[in-house]
Amino acid sequence: MAGSTNKSVAEIFETMEYGPTASSNTATAQAWLDRHSRSLGLFINGNFVLPANRQTRSLVDSKGVQVCSTVCAEEEDISQCASSSVNGFKSWSSLNCQQRAKVLLRLVGVLGQHAACVSELCELCEAPCSPSSVVRLLQYYSSWAQLRDTLLSGWTSLGVVEVACSDECSLYSLMTKVLPALAMGNSVIIVPGYCTAPAALLLAQLFIGAGLPAGALNVLTGSDMSLCAQVAQNLSINYVTYCGNKQDGVNLCKASSAFGVPISVSASIGATCPFIIFDTADIDSAVDGVIEAAFKKKKEVHWVLLVQESVLNNVMARLKLRMAGMKSVPLASDGARALVDAVVKEAQNQGAMLICPSDTAPSGAMYPPTVLCGTAPSSPCVVSPAPGPLLPLMTFRTNTEGVTVGNHSPHGMAASIWTEDLTLALETAKSLSVGCVWVNSHSFSDPCLPVFGHKDSGTCTDGGQEGLYHFLRLSSSKTPLPRSSPVSLDYDKFGVAAPTTIIPDDSDPASAPKIYQQFVGGKTCKSVSGGSVAVQSADGTKLLAYCPDGGRKDVRNAVEAATKVQPGWMKKSLSARSQSLYSLAKGLEAKKKDFVASLSTQTGVSAESVDSEVELSIARLNDWAAFCDKMHGGTLPVPNSGCALSIPDPLGVIGIVLPDKNLLLSTVTLLGAAIATGNAVVMVPSQKYPVPTLTLIQVLQLSDLPPGLVSIISGSKDQLTVALANHSVIKGIWYWGTAEGCQYLQNTCTSPLKTLLCQREDEDGDWARCDLAFLEHKWRSAVQWKSVWLPTA
What DSSP letter does each residue of 267-304 carry, written as one string? Predict the structure, then answer.
């Protein structure tokens, strides 16, 4: 048992008990806190600032002992910090790549000198983080800082980035966002959580001491998560990235939606992750792994143990052996104990059997590690895990059923699978809808691994080259990116305006406007409502056509068709997808005259200019056809023994609201990017100029794309945007429209979280660009990344 010293090595090996734990020493961290009188101020412009007349927040450990206090920033402090960050960005971004890389490398030495202080401070604040893991982050991102202009040409820094995290988030998770932002030349404002605030302040001090320009890294602390939203609302902020629990991330998105700042969310805290043991696993290693993962003193995710029925008795016997004599785990409070007791009691009432240590006497804020055997996917202990050392155990019969149960959770953070069958391991890893899969291991992390939270686990890629693009923008003349002014918007009334009544004029049948249909499920059809909208010429003097007035039910039908066909399209070989896109380009070329006439009539642009756009559109489809098997993941250079893979998966079903400019070129650019990566698409044409996109239906009908993969629904842009935003199956929305539309999407697309690509119509899309960075930007917006870690001996 832990703390035992009177047993031989052979006896400990025989009983598989843990050895004694080392006593902790926090003298260095205590001395640093004492130097600041245990009252930590804000860190602004390279110095600690302790403003007067501010509220403070006390940080106490699990024993109720006060560690220190932090200042709660107010609006005046936020303005001062933002101004400092703008100046810091100018200084930091003016350095060349080599100079920025040298500063980050210098930090490795500085952190090595003060590793004890950082480690002890994290221990005091009960937010453990190994300094060596932060050193690895620094080494990795310093090399990317060196190579940014070489390997990421066509991209440039965003400006001022806010990195926020919730109270439960670890220092390591926070730094996985801070360091890539700095490496790409941005300045950073950190808004840390309750436990990470002292360590974040210490690191900021060390960073400035290593040569980071004043203002390039600032830290603001507060009383709760509302500070994150207040900082995001400052017009100097160009981008916000958040890590923590989902609810705080949702609140941040809603509170900041009126201010036009892009936000990405990594909802890593509280996610439910499957731990799958197949009958081909090394059972002893698997049981040892699940105990290490599930019963940590402080963990960011909840594990659910899935065991194949044929080895259930074997696994349970080893669990009983390994858990005998394990110590109780401290809970956050006495209230948490009550929650855990209620969950355990309900699980027992539903027939669950408990596996726990023989000593279950501890009371108060302590609870013994407990396995709940025989739970169901709908049990409260699985759906809403209690904050304690509980491990639900479920069984499955076949490999396919194991994957199905593993994908039952609304979260998609990570999974651990245990099998000695490599083929089964890779097939399972590919089928699980999670961002990271560990084979015969768990909780391995490295900055080279790109991890994208699938489903409700976020909209942000952390790690790897893929994660750098969140902190970059396409090179353009606009520096920095423009921000929207706050708009007063009634979300309940957005997109519900009554349609305009149309009375067809049949006085002259020969000159009657053409009637178009929309495209749903591979067939042309009228809108479900039966209504139509009138399409005027560019000068507004002539009625050109009648188009369907689509709505929510049309979107529903389109998504139903898309979900049936998208899995098959995703599994198609890359060369087969490529040939389908080449065929689509040929079909567009065959109808070139029709598109030239349609575009010229609809927009009033000269035939010569329109002809050039059609040629570019044909070339763009050919580009996407060529891209199909050129852009992909691969193996990753992890420092440990083993093999890591990065895999780009399609998002699923994407809703696209098209712009009013470059009608055909923008349509095929976005359509090609989405289907080349394996997605299905529901497209909404320009409300002002829908005819060219509806003309594309003729080409789609003659193509070999699966029916339902692409749907086109015309009508009110706002009304259809609302329908796309509120459909739970749609995984991403690409929107070109009004500031109100962008605001609505950011406020609404949070349950479940959707990947957003929003741009105001008055911003130039520069659709004629054909460089790699432009195409890469669209391609990366259509995929979600998955990392697979395969350890070796």
Answer: EEET-EEEEEE-TTS-HHHHHHHHHHHHT-SS-SSEEE
